[in-house]
Every structure is written in C-alpha cells, then in structure tokens.
Amino acid sequence: MTRRCNIKRGSATVINSTEINPTLQGTAEYEVNQPNREAINIQIVVGGTLHTPNISLTSDAQPPIAQSDLLSYLAFGQSSSSLWQREGSGLTNGGSGQNLVGAGAALASKQLAGVALGVAADQFAGNAARSLGADVFTITPADVQTDVGNFLRATQFEFGKYIKSHTFVAVKSPFDPKALQRPGVQVVHRFGGLGGYRLETGADTRYILLEPTLARDQNIATTSAFGAFLIREWRF
Q1: Which of 47, 63, 83 is the last residue of a domain?
Q2: Distances from the Cα of 10 to the Cαs of 7, 44, 117, in angstroms?
Q3: pTM score, two decimals?
Q4: To the nearest 10°, the Cα dihedral for 209, 215, 217, 220?
Q5: I want to staple 186 with a disulfide (CB 3.0 to 4.6 A). Which of 60, 150, 161, 202 is the partner?
Q6: Longest dimension (CA), the chain
C-alpha cells in the first residue's frame, strides 16, 4: 500500500519438502500521526505460508480499533467514519453519506491510485529483479519532485547486484532520460580479512537551494557529488 513499515521480528521456517513453501511469522509496525491526538501504532501481522499468507491488523490503541478502521488509517491516515463526516470535510452530499464528492472524492481517488500504483510497482520490480538477475531492484518516488505532473520523471529505480561475494554495486536513475537528475552509482566493498571494515563510495546528483522567488518560471540548479566512507563495525 505504498507505506514503508518497520519490521520488528519475523521468521520463515522451511520443512523438508519438494517445494519451497516456508511457514511465515512476521510483525511490522506503521505509525499514524493524528493532530492533537496520540499517534497510533498499527501492527501488520503475517502468518500462514508463503503460498497462502494470512495478514491481519492490530494496534496498541485502547479501546481496540476495528480492522476496517485500521485499514483506513493505513490508506488515508484517518478512520473510516471520519471519511464520511459531513461537517468540515466536504466528503458527503446532502447528508446522505453515500457518495464522495468534491475535494473529498479527489483525495480518495489520489490515495487509492497511489495504492494501486504501489502494488503494481512492487509486482513489476519483483518480476524485473528475477528477469535481470538483480539482487536489489526497487521503484520509488524521486528524492526531490522537480518535474510535477510527469510520472516518469518523478519516479526512479535502483538496480543492485553483488559482482563478488564482498562487493556490491548499485545504479539509481530516473526512468525518464530527460529528467534533471543524472544516474547515480554506489559501490560497497567489505574487507573480509580486516575485521569489520567496509568501504562505501558513490556519486549522485544534488540540488542546490536558490533564493525563493514568486516568478512563475524558476531555474533548478544541480551539481554532481562524490562521497567515500570507510566504516568499521564492532560486535559485542
């Protein structure tokens, strides 16, 4: 649903079988911030098997929140009942509470379109990763939305692969070649015999902040940036 959740715990248990169909147990959390109210932590609980997973929603709120409201919080950031309120929302027509109109309909359409695009992008990324032999292949919104209205320019992909067991290379680029953002490259190398050292290098496009203006046509300044980090990890 285009929502990034924090994985708290999870496991996949594989039994001795002719097919790979592990038993799944996982929990993820997503926080919904509410104005003038305490944030709601929604837990996404995954069970069942890989072929037939079971997904349920819970929360730490008291009194407990219904599944339909939790799904509404994930999709729209508010409860299902508030979507149908007449006063101050502009979501209902004539008090009937049955039809979404005006700004409310536009908001709902955009949210549901985002859900559909997110699911389609995840499916496409998974199929592309398998077809291209990638270890990582993701499709995400661009870091800076400079080309409003152009879906391709506002979307970027990342292709990553281990060229050796200790060396990972990734390329990040927008789908549209005419976009201002140039492709970026990242290389991560882990030194196996040096006790937890790894080298991370990369080159990417950065946007330069300009003085604000009310002019209709504004130029966007970009520059290329290169970074290199030597990191040491300790385990206790």
Answers
A1: 83
A2: 8, 11, 26
A3: 0.46
A4: 0
A5: 202
A6: 72
The pLDDT tens digits of the residues spanning 36-63 come to 778 888 888 999 988 888 888 888 888 8
Q: From CA 64, how far away is CA 59, in angstroms rounded?
A: 7
Three-class secondary structure of residue 57 per DSSP: strand
102 domain-assigned: no
Q: Is residue 154 part of a domain?
A: yes
Q: Do residue 146 and residue 75 come from a single domain? A: no
Q: Per the domain annotation, does 224 fall within a domain? A: yes
Contact criterion met (CB below 8 Å) for 62 and 40? no
39 located within any domain: yes
Rounded distance, CA 4 to CA 56, Å? 17
CA dist 3 and 111 (Å) reads: 11
pLDDT in tens, 127-159: 777 778 888 888 776 655 554 445 555 677 888
Domain tally for the chain?
Answer: 2
